[in-house]
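In this section we walk through a basic example: taking a raw amino acid sequence and producing a predicted 3D structure, encoded as discrete structure tokens. The instruction is simple. Fold the sequence below.
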Amino acid sequence: MFATERRNALLKRGVRGVCMAVLPALLLANTATVKASNLNFLDDTPMSYLEKEDIESIKRALIVVLNTKQIGEASRWTNDGTGNIVKMTATMTPESTNREGDRTCRGVAVVLVAKGQSMDLHPQFCGTGGTDWTLKKR
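The resulting token sequence is shown next.
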């Protein structure tokens, strides 16, 4: 997909879709909608190079991090095998863990890298374990 087509696809999805693309943040987002014209700053950022297969792969990796990694224990993801010609990596490191009722909430530092650029993300997810993690609204 050309960069312009990627940007247009992101613009059509709005912030909710963009966040889901990033983590899943890319994955599990549920945020306010912003006018699409304000998303031009995403051109040529690592997030703009994510393809559907990358998103699915990073979602699976993030769930493993949320379920198994200790605070400060980094996990590395690559998009090898997804078919994307743009090579991407991510380092995901849990930053915090706390309980909210019957749910566990975890903050994760994510550094997404593509084409020599990086994006730092700090989403927080809550769930009961397994695959039910959801992005926590701030």
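Looking at the output, two observations stand out. Residues 10-22, 25-35 have pLDDT under 50 and may be disordered. The radius of gyration is 15 Å. In the next section we compare this with other chains.
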